[in-house]
Amino acid sequence: MTYEPQPNLGSVGPPRLLAGLDAAPRLDRVGHLTQHGSLPHHRPDELVALAENTDLRGRGGAGFPFARKLQAVLRSAAARDGRTAVVVNGSEGEPSCLKDTALLLRVPHLVLDGAMLAADALGAEQVVIGVTRNDVEASVREAIAERGPTGGRLRVGRLPERFVTGEGSAMVRGLSGGPALPSGQRVRTSERGLSGLPTLLSNTETFAQLAVAARLGALEYRAAGLPAEPGTTLLTVGGRTVVETPTGVPLPYVLQLCGSDPGQGVLVGGYHGMWLTPRTARAALVSRQSLASFDAVLGAGAVLPLPEDTCPAGEVARVARWMADESAGQCGPCVRGLPALADVLEAAVGGDRRALEDVEARMRAVKRRGACSHPDGTARFVASALAVFPDEFHDHARGPGCGRRVLGALPLPDDDSPEQLVVDWTLCRGHGLCADVLPDIVVLDRDGYPAQAAMPVPGRLRTKALRAVRRCPALALRIQE
Predict the structure, then answer these.
(1) Under 8 Å between Cβ of 159 and 132
(2) What is the mean pLDDT of the chain?
(3) What's the confidence (pLDDT) of residue 402?
(4) d(C-alpha 365, C-alpha 274), whole Å
(5) Are 69 and 96 in contact (CB under 8 A)?
(6) Who wins on pLDDT, 462 or 226?
């Protein structure tokens, strides 16, 4: 069975999307309405105006203006028979991102509210939430059931968990009964999407933000964040901690909140993203404009600092191999180009100088030639790593290498259950030292005790986990397979 990581939560300032989770691990329907109140109704023109006035953009990677998506679906529907659909993209094939998973597990009604708000404005007859995880599917089904008759238009669709499932056309094809693979066709979902209908497709956080904006109104929504990029955003830091922060907050502050620092560099935007040097990471803000000045994008909000004690070249080669294995298998750049790129990277890391010279040629062979963005995104990730870590790659290609092990700091799915940090409740006295040593793993409840009895330990944190075991005054911790 594939292990499904559980996100830790945090916030910079008062949370909006994650509000109420300090008192309950999940907001059911009653808890949701108590926290947020009822959802106001919006006419199509009012919803478009709200999205424009809050500058709401897609939070799945591309950052496309939500108002323009709404208008495009309305135009397509008016030119046809008026029928439309709404799709929530809840697939996170990106191993370093858990923000949408956190929303669907902890505050699913906020996401469903946003989807229904859009569906009512569009007159949509179908509202489908596409997911890939067992626990997320169960959470969404439970939330739909909690809505009773008002949830009649809502359904959840389960798709294969793989990187390319989250691509728009792959999501729509899968939910329509076809293969969950990119179509390779340049047809907008606003024109022909779910079951051939004009479809409003956006990711989980986008719909949750819409529900928050509808309740707050544009003026109050803009009270947080930057004037040009209002509101809050969700980041997944280190592949484990989901943080809600206003835009404009310094990136190093968010890293510090999660017990980290820029280390050797920071990958932003996930495995189709770009690397920041430590210097640029310290100067960056949580902002599209700020990151664009460093030729980077926030993408789906994944932020991955690379610790000092791991090998950058080995980490990048490991991810490149996984990305090659995640190919849709439908075009040459994916089927042959990405594995060839992974081959030369691995050879270079293993001490082959000529292989490093071949990396650039392998990247050129896949750029702008794929049926979807997967080859381009993977090549961009590798090219950025070569630019930020040139000495490390050259040291490996010349033979001696950097002398560090690959600790798996860049998270990848693991089919084997990882080791766990286990709490013996008969001994635990709530000293809290374990959370001081392992803030990325141990979260304390309101009484100061670990919130979970068993917590997975990634390989890169095993040394710290052992230190937590040794430092526990009550000897209440142990590492277990």
Answers:
(1) yes
(2) 92
(3) 85
(4) 20
(5) no
(6) 226
Q: How far apart are CA 72 and CA 83, in angstroms?
A: 13
Question: Residue 141: is its pLDDT beyond 80?
Answer: yes
Which residue type occupies 481? E
- Which residue has 């280190």 as its token pair? 238
10 Å CB burial of residue 223 (0-12, 13-18, 19+) is: exposed
Give 241's strand partners.
8, 237
Bridge partners for 250 per DSSP: 285
Q: pLDDT, tens digit, for every residue of 29-38?
A: 999 999 999 9
With vertex at residue 383, the alpha carbon angle to CA 99 and CA 392, rounded to the nearest 5 degrees, is: 100
* Least confident among 178-182, 205-209, 228-232: 178-182
Beta-ladder partners of 285? 250
Residues 385, 391, 396, CA angle at the centre, nearest 5°? 90
CA 54 to CA 268: how far, in whole Å? Answer: 24
Average pLDDT rounded to a whole number, residues 376-389: 96
pLDDT digits (tens, 9 = 90+) for 9-57: 999 999 999 999 999 999 999 999 999 999 999 999 999 999 999 999 9
Beta bridge partners of 88: 129, 202
Q: How far is CA 457 from CA 394, 406, 437, 438, in A?
A: 32, 16, 13, 10
Q: How many CA atoms are closer than 13 Å to the CA of 479, on its beta-carbon side?
A: 16
Cα 27–Cα 144–Cα 134 angle in degrees, nearest 5: 80
Sheet holding 420-423, edge to edge: 454-456, 420-423, 477-480
Compute the distance between CA of residue 320 and CA of residue 317 in angstroms, rounded to an integer.
5
Torsion of CA 374, 377, 383, 386, to 10 degrees: -90
